[in-house]
Amino acid sequence: MFEFKEPLLLDGATGTNLIKAGMPSGVCVEKWVLDHPDTIIELQRAYVDAGSNVITAPTFEANRYKLSLHGLGDKVKEFNKQLVSLSKEAAGGKAAVAGNMAPTGLFVEPFGDETFDGLVDIFREQAFALKEAGVDYIACETFMSLTEARAALLAAKETGLPVTVTLTVEKNGRTLSGCNVLSNLVTLAAMGAAAVGLNCSTGPEIVLKALSGVPSQLPVPVIAKPNAGVPSNDNSQVTVDEFASYAKEFFKEGIGILGGCCGTTPEYITALREEMNKAEFIDKRGGDGAKSEGVRDFIAANEKQAFFISEEDLDFSHKINCGVDIADRLLEIEGENCAARVVIKNADDAHEFGMNAYLASVPVVLLGYDADALDTALRLYQGRAMLDSKSDIEKDKLNLLSQKYGAIII
Hints:
Layout: E1 8-9, H1 15-20, H2 29-35, H3 37-50, E2 54-56, H4 64-68, H5 76-91, E3 96-101, H6 116-133, E4 137-143, H7 146-157, E5 163-167, H8 181-190, E6 195-200, H9 204-211, E7 222-226, H10 240-245, H11 247-252, E8 257-258, H12 266-278, E9 297-302, E10 306-310, E11 315-321, H13 326-332, E12 338-344, H14 347-356, E13 364-368, H15 371-380, E14 383-384, E15 386-387, H16 395-405, E16 408-409
Parallel strand pairs: 1-8, 2-3, 3-4, 4-5, 5-6, 6-7, 7-8, 11-12, 12-13, 13-15, 15-16
Antiparallel strand pairs: 9-10, 9-14
């Protein structure tokens, strides 16, 4: 199984280089690549020659929903297999091959028509197609919301392969859904991602700032795969040398898995490899307080913010039953060391909680009376919840739920 040993160099952009090679806009990228196999093989061989330890198969939108927009929704297994085969040919055994999964852009209830499980199912189909195709791991990239990132991670984990997840941020350092980077990465790392971080975004400077201090709060490696800046009329795109110069800054922050996104070429990766070889990587990886003995300090999270919690000081006396007033009750609770203790008795409670959990501005502690219902509640909570150890659920089952969703038993 592939191991994420830092430092590690990923590849550079695929899409922008395909456009340079003649790919027109509006086409199904995956089909165009299959119709022009020499283009991707030449590009990815160049990345291997540049020093990439990993190349990413061009399966970015090879999921049922995205392919169906081109009338190709039944080609998921076929396309993923063929695209991975091209990358394996390009790698020639000199680099690992990651299967790429991207967001669908679908909105999940209560904000859209898709269900969370429906989203998981879309990603599951592609994830197993990638596994069957023989990828070394699955890279979920350019996610704009924690909801889709969690769905992709849950689906990909079912394959048994290592899974990485990277989000993209805007100039303000927040995700496109306006959320905090740390809270999102804490949640994904706790759920079992092998590595987490950022890709694309608006250049290495923004990515560096957004990830500053993050490695020390996570138990897994951190990825930085920025684009080469945002091209404009004054040609302000980050140059090869400027891009590569950030290697030492990322290494100082404890960020040891690097690569490039939109606008980068094999020349960028060559320069990045040279700088990585000269720079000293400082491992700042943190632990997970949820696994410590005695009084613990840990990080819980919802989609918008992270909560630094001392178990000794935590007040979760605010008990909420999942009824018609759950939205009002969640909105009422505020406080620095305060948590919402939500009772989950059955499937209806779990669904009611899931549809209203986004309203909570405090961390959530779930007290469960049914294992399946508690599973559903955790599945629908877009963050890292806590589980009340007094839940009327067998200890082994509670531990399994904790591991599956990264929840903290208190």
